[in-house]
TrEMBL record, chain A:
<dbReference type="Pfam" id="PF02310">
    <property type="entry name" value="B12-binding"/>
</dbReference>
<keyword id="KW-0413">Isomerase</keyword>
<dbReference type="GO" id="GO:0016853">
    <property type="term" value="F:isomerase activity"/>
</dbReference>
<dbReference type="GO" id="GO:0046872">
    <property type="term" value="F:metal ion binding"/>
</dbReference>
<dbReference type="InterPro" id="IPR006159">
    <property type="entry name" value="Acid_CoA_mut_C"/>
</dbReference>
<protein>
    <submittedName>
        <fullName>Methylmalonyl-CoA mutase</fullName>
    </submittedName>
</protein>
<keyword id="KW-0846">Cobalamin</keyword>
<dbReference type="GO" id="GO:0031419">
    <property type="term" value="F:cobalamin binding"/>
</dbReference>
<dbReference type="InterPro" id="IPR006158">
    <property type="entry name" value="Cobalamin-bd"/>
</dbReference>
From TrEMBL, chain B:
<dbReference type="InterPro" id="IPR006098">
    <property type="entry name" value="MMCoA_mutase_a_cat"/>
</dbReference>
<dbReference type="InterPro" id="IPR006099">
    <property type="entry name" value="MeMalonylCoA_mutase_a/b_cat"/>
</dbReference>
<feature type="domain" description="Methylmalonyl-CoA mutase alpha/beta chain catalytic">
    <location>
        <begin position="37"/>
        <end position="551"/>
    </location>
</feature>
<dbReference type="InterPro" id="IPR016176">
    <property type="entry name" value="Cbl-dep_enz_cat"/>
</dbReference>
<keyword id="KW-0413">Isomerase</keyword>
<dbReference type="GO" id="GO:0004494">
    <property type="term" value="F:methylmalonyl-CoA mutase activity"/>
</dbReference>
<comment type="subunit">
    <text>Heterodimer of an alpha and a beta chain.</text>
</comment>
<dbReference type="Pfam" id="PF01642">
    <property type="entry name" value="MM_CoA_mutase"/>
</dbReference>
<dbReference type="GO" id="GO:0031419">
    <property type="term" value="F:cobalamin binding"/>
</dbReference>
Length: 142, 558
């Protein structure tokens, strides 16, 4: 089963070159990618669930990550998408990175990260998650 | 051709030199690797006279004369330096006013105000879409009151003010607020000089937003502004074609120029359809280019752009006023060519980018700050960028002689190549029915995205070296202090509450109703926008009217 990925721009951040180039690259690596455009946190979570994605990619270059990323992850959890992996790309100052990981972001890809590295990391993350899921025997308490 | 760059008497000399170059190629050519410029123009390791001998009069001419290859004004920097126009804008109007005044005090000669994400897209700071981005990427402006305070203390009839408000959804409303604010402060609008960005490509191609206007309507709004300015604001540039941003989105230097020229053609045609002759429109048009890392291609780009622009405007519109065919432009050095890794390297990069701009004859310049890839420029970074301009201007001697690279075999050859490649794209766009159609069908999006992906792949796979990224990338990480944008939303929220409770809300409703009538019946929206601004309508209220009728266009991405 191909890995399913949704990518969006939170709020009014409008620089979508990175979001589009990574979308195209992931698709070229056999993933199913949907680009969701600009979204508010609740809308992004809803769309990710509707699209049944493995990974939700947030692309933020405007500096709105502190206000949007934790809210997106909270919405994902509230709507039942805790299994969806969240990765973040864009301009995230070093000082904010711990906060992003604490909020539940799995990986952060800054400017200049090779696209293939991102594809490999996403593949790895999904494999790890699926392996962890499979190691839990059916019927056992979570 | 007998009269060449080296002069008529030099033909025999040229042939002798060409023979020498040919012998060099035979001897050494096989031991050199082929190279290309960033736009894919092949560059052999040695150029000779035969690569650059065109007709001096028709290809180059003197500065201030057609075809303006060597500059749009007769004396260029030996008469007047370029405008030092550093970009500034963040947080609230008070925050930005302080930064603008600092830059003016420290040597800036013109103002360049960038608006935050919500303002550029036409949302009030307290809108649910806007809240996370208020004060980011520029200054938050919601109403005429903000505009009054933004330029507090600035003599608007003396300083040229550039408003970096690119999206037509909001450009007219922001200009309306600027005009109304200037009037409130006692300035005559007819005496205001400056530039509004106002490019429909920004709204429809280059950037994204939640509710994008249809290209045709975005273009119509930008033409409303252009028409209004042409009729009422003799010292204002109503539009600045944003080649810079086409490039940041992925276009190469050739496509950057082609789209700017195509946009100018579309503009003059649209104004003619509204009954305005070419001259009053064309002489106020302006452009905005980037300066990237490929030094000689960038210089050639500016020179070729002036020549193509002159040629195209002359051929198509046969203007009477020679100013109508002169391409005047501001340059901002590339943001996307700067790196987050090893940020201090960007001081050197931006200086070289700035050098390309002034070797190419820019009218106005902003040099990007070294922390561009990390944050809004800190004061130190902004001042370093300003000082870089001053070093270029006063230490390097670049202003002594006009168009100093003219006659360089390489630069003349690249200028010719850029020109002919731009011409091909223009013919292609004509074949599609013009630029607005080329946007509507997604052709422009696809071209830009293809080039963006190619550029990323070239860097990722090491074909395009970037120091600190794919070359010498193993240095221990260096960090610079990043700038924190001051808290904006609570302050803007308070200002908006105060505005909403103090204004005459019936007057606002009436003004918005009149605006809606203009949208529906096709009359120019600018007078209604000015009336709405004066009544205290917020930016979001005005732009909602546009979005309600023409928003929700799906950008054709694939």
């Amino acid at each position: 089963m191909p890995i399913r990925v949704a990518i969006f721009k939170p709020g009014l951040d409008s620089h979508y070159r990175g979001a589009l180039t990574i979308s195209r690259h992931l698709a070229s690596r056999g993933m199913e990618v949907v680009y969701l455009g600009n979204q508010l946190p609740a809308g992004a979570a809803r769309a990710a669930l509707q699209e049944d994605v493995d990974v939700l990619g947030i692309s933020s270059l405007s500096g709105n990550h502190l206000a949007t990323v934790p809210a997106v992850i909270a919405e994902l959890r509230a709507q039942g998408g805790q299994n969806i992996l969240v990765v973040l790309g864009g301009i995230i100052p070093d000082i904010d990175r711990p906060l992003m990981f604490e909020a539940g972001v799995q990986r952060i890809f800054g400017p200049g990260t090779p696209l293939e590295h991102i594809a490999q990391e996403i593949t790895l993350l999904v494999r790890e998650r699926d392996a962890a899921d499979a190691s839990v025997p059916i019927g056992s308490p979570l | 051709m007998t009269s060449g760059i080296v002069g008529a008497s030099g033909q025999a000399v040229i042939e002798e030199m060409a023979g020498q170059v040919q012998r060099w190629r035979e001897e050494h050519g096989s031991s050199t690797m082929p190279t290309w410029t960033e736009s894919g123009i092949p560059v052999p390791p040695l150029y000779g006279p035969e690569d650059a001998v065109g007709d001096y009069g028709t290809q180059l001419g003197v500065p201030g004369s057609p075809p303006y290859t060597r500059g749009v004004y007769p004396t260029m920097y030996s008469g007047r330096a370029w405008s030092i126009r550093p970009l500034a804008g963040f947080g609230t109007v008070e925050d930005t006013n302080r930064r603008l005044r600092l830059l003016l005090d420290e040597g800036a000669t013109a103002i360049n105000t960038v608006f935050d994400y919500p303002t550029n897209r036409g949302y009030d700071s307290d809108d649910e879409w806007a809240r996370a981005d208020a004060g980011l990427g520029g200054v938050a402006v919601d109403s005429i009151d903000d505009m009054v305070d933004l330029y507090d203390g600035v003599p608007l009839d003396e300083v040229s003010v550039s408003l970096v408000l690119s999206h037509p959804v909001a450009a007219g409303a922001i200009l309306a607020m600027y005009l109304a604010a200037a009037k409130r402060r006692g300035f005559d609008p007819a005496r205001l000089s400056g530039t509004l960005q106002n490019d429909f490509m920004m709204e429809t191609v280059v950037l994204t937003a939640p509710s994008v206007l249809e290209p045709e309507f975005a273009f119509r709004l930008s033409m409303d502004v252009t028409e209004y300015c042409t009729r009422h604001l003799p010292r204002w540039h109503p539009v600045s074609f944003t080649g810079y941003n086409y490039r940041e989105a992925g276009a190469d230097a050739v496509l950057e120029v082609a789209l700017v020229v195509a946009n100018a053609v579309a503009t003059v045609e649209a104004m003619r359809a509204r009954g305005l002759p070419v001259d009053p429109v064309a002489r106020r048009l302006s452009a905005f280019f980037t300066a990237g890392s490929d030094l000689f291609e960038e210089v050639a780009k500016y020179r070729a752009a002036r020549r193509v622009y002159h040629g195209v405007m002359t051929e198509r519109f046969d203007p009477m006023d020679e100013r109508s065919t002169r391409l005047r432009f501001h340059v901002q050095t590339s943001g996307s060519a700067l790196t987050a890794a090893q940020p201090l390297n960007n001081v050197a990069r931006a200086a070289l980018h700035g050098l390309a701009a002034v070797l190419g004859g820019a009218q106005s310049l902003h040099i990007s700050a070294y922390d561009e890839a990390l944050c809004i420029p800190s004061e130190t970074a902004a001042l370093t960028a300003l000082r870089t301009q001053q070093i270029l201007l006063s230490e390097t001697g670049v202003t002594r002689s006009i168009d100093p690279l003219a006659g360089s075999y390489l630069v003349e050859h690249l200028t010719d190549e850029v020109e002919s490649r731009v011409r091909k794209i223009l013919a292609n766009i004509d074949g599609m029915g013009g630029l607005v159609r080329a946007v509507d069908t997604g052709w422009v999006h696809a071209r830009i995205l293809d080039l963006a992906c190619q550029a990323t792949a070239d860097i990722d796979e090491g074909r395009r070296p970037v120091v600190g990224v794919n070359v010498s990338a193993n240095q221990a990480p260096t960090t610079v202090e990043t700038f924190d944008v001051p808290e904006t939303l609570p302050k803007q929220g308070e200002r908006l509450m105060r505005l909403r409770s103090n204004r005459d809300n019936d007057a606002v409703t009436n003004a918005l109703h009149r605006l809606e009538q203009c949208v529906v019946d096709g009359t120019n929206t600018m007078p209604a926008l000015i009336a709405a601004a004066e009544a205290g309508a917020t930016l979001g209220q005005c732009c909602d009217v546009f979005r309600h009728h023409h928003g929700g266009w799906r950008q054709p991405l694939r």
